[in-house]
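Regression report. Comparing outputs from two consecutive submissions.

Submission 1:
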Amino acid sequence: MTSILPLSHRSFLEKTLDILSQDSRIHTLLAGGSLIHGGMDEFSDLDFVVVVEEDSYTDVLASRTAIARRIGPLLSAFTGEHVGEPRLLICLYGPDLLHIDLKFVTMSDLDRRIERPIVLWSRDKGTIEERLDRADIRWPNLDPDWFEARAWIWLHYGAARALRGELFEAIGMLAFFREQVLGPMLHRRAGRPQRGVRRVEAFGLDQTRQLAATIARHDLEAVKASLVAAIELYLELRADDPPHSEVEGMPGALLRFLGSESENSQGALKSRTK
């Protein structure tokens, strides 16, 4: 497995294994991310899951930054509350920059996973493998109703900010909409786990350049055009797996609000909803 890693990643992984295996509080080291999804290269992160003995978990969690410093030249680290994962320590090592995620869990946390990690090292590999084999492993894909309930509110927010002249905020909303809605729906179309806009280019998910058309420069008309492009792509992707009910009056009401309901755009959007 380590043969597929770039040299810097391989060296870091080997040192991590050596250091953590000497800590009696740590039971197992797992890996996820690119190591299991593929596409590992020099720009990839390393995503480690550190399985801690139950009676040592509080102590390890309190000292996780110190643990991170032991395994390499740590430049900076912070915990993952912003992604709803306080057990996660997000680390940057140097001087050759390397992003490492360290998630500290207990054995019971392995019963439900979003992906099947690989076992790098364990004090009892057989037990860990058996537990992972029994685990409920399910990527948190979102259903059509989730997208429909949010899409028009988020797009309206972007339109309102643009019309007010808050173009940076509107451009930020377009990026958020790509990450939360359009990217996942493109992955859905390809039969892949809904991973935001990750690997969209690598998997050729935007060959028509419709997603690229939602990227706007700092100009009101450009932002409005990108919002219309986002509406068009959403409607096309929505048709792949329609929600149980569609938000009434959309997209017409939003286009009128945006001032973009030209004859051409109105006709094109109506044709997509038939």
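Submission 2:
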Amino acid sequence: MKKNENYPKLVQAMHMLDDGHSVNYIQKHLRVDRKTLLLARQRYLSGGELALLLPKYQPQLSMESKLEIVREVDQKQLSLSEVALKHLIPRYSLERWMKAYHQFGESGLARKGTSNGMKKKRQRTEAEMDELEMLRKRNEYLEAENALLKKVKALVEEREARLRAIGQKPSKD
């Protein structure tokens, strides 16, 4: 397990909080941002100093876990920040879950994506399709023009070779 680089600073901050120092004082004294300090405090209270070594956030949660957390916000009328700190999840994730739950119900909390982990191909808009078709036609035109120029060059070189063979100088046109 990779040791958290801020571990000593966070342990010191937790001891300072235990001793009664304010969050603002610790923030300024140790130069730790408030969000990190509050998350660390929640982890410290739930698991002690060793919990500060764990990754900042939990790995991806199941639909059931998300549903439990969303219902906790709805039923207990808790703030998103409180619930996010309690469950050690980013607040913006919780906001996203809440929005999905209110729009689509429980199915909105299901993991998106395919089962084999492959991303779906992005659907193109009509304007992008028109532009793509236009670029393909332009590319086809330029390839044809390039082929024509190569043929002309080959014909000119062949003509010059014939003229040299009979002893005449090629024209400069």
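Expected: both submissions complete independently.
Actual: both completed, but the second showed a warning that disappeared on reload.
Relevant detail on submission 2: The chain has a mean pLDDT of 81.
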